[in-house]
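tokens incoming
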């Protein structure tokens, strides 16, 4: 009974999340985002996610390394795959930078994906348990067929502050890789 009550509370809290002023499009249809709208200069919220090896990993907050948070709808889609492979390749050339790819995919999907594609320089994380990341960073889709998963976005965090944000306006569009790499 306690498990059922916890599930109901989680469902109610997800549906009570306030809309941000942000939106993206999916094939041209506007999708409102919910959660806490993060802007450049804001403190980066600390959020605990689940890694592909089922360990808790905290992102955000102040760390010694620059954090690049690459948020994708699903690692199993062509553009998300391109992002993961591109950042995996670039990460091997970077010093004092940690790159995390975050989605609602189950950790098992992340593990399978990394093994199948030789992904070793980035960390794939899942927000499936609580949607805490999507809510904390304001990238949770609040409506439409993809309601409850995260929009495509990239945040760069240095010394605990968000120094760069790219919310990709169309879900089926690639991020501006050059702008991200320059900002790192």
């Amino acid at each position: 009974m306690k498990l059922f009550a916890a599930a109901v509370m989680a469902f109610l809290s997800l549906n009570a999340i306030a809309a941000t002023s942000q939106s993206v499009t999916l094939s041209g249809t506007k999708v409102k985002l919910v959660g806490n709208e993060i802007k450049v200069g804001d403190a980066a919220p600390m959020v605990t996610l689940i890694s592909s090896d089922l360990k808790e990993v905290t992102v955000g907050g102040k760390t010694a390394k620059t954090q690049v948070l690459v948020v994708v709808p699903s690692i199993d889609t062509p553009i998300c795959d391109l992002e993961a492979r591109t950042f995996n390749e670039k990460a091997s050339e970077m010093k004092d930078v940690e790159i995390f790819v975050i989605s609602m995919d189950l950790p098992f999907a992340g593990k399978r994906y990394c093994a199948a594609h030789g992904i070793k320089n980035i960390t794939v994380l899942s927000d499936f348990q609580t949607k805490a990341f999507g809510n904390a960073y304001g990238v949770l889709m609040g409506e439409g067929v993809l309601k409850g998963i995260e929009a495509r976005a990239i945040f760069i965090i240095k010394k605990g502050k968000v120094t760069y944000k790219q919310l990709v306006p169309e879900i089926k569009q690639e991020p501006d890789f050059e702008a991200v790499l320059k900002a790192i």
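note: Residues 1-16 have pLDDT under 50 and may be disordered.
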